[in-house]
Amino acid sequence: MAGKKPRIVAIDDEADFISMLEDYFRLRGYEITTTSKAVHGIELISNNKPDVVILDLKMPGISGDEILGLLKSRQPKAKVIFITAFDDAGKTKARLLNAGAYAYLDKPVESLKKLEDVINAAYSGK
Length: 126
Fold this sequence. Notes:
Blueprint: E1 7-11, H1 15-27, E2 31-35, H2 38-48, E3 52-55, H3 64-74, E4 79-84, H4 91-98, E5 103-106, H5 112-124
Parallel strand pairs: 1-2, 1-3, 3-4, 4-5
Helix pairs in contact: 2-3
């Protein structure tokens, strides 16, 4: 297990953000698959069996909430990290964490290194 990096799927409708995540994590040796289409994300999750899923909350077609529900029923071990600009004084954050999300980070992400730390903590079960 030492040195093994988590498989990541990232689903966010902001193409620039997805591209930035891909570049950052690939350069560091992570296996990352991304999509800007939420519906395609469900397929990626099924096909790639990720350890960690990075998820936006508000996307066209299907919400991050719905994807979290599907993920928890199909792959309960996968850790979900929400990254969203949606703000409602913490109500949504509390609801998502109660629903099984591992973490909830605000967008814009203050640093990709911090995100990497959260991903690795999720993967190692901390």
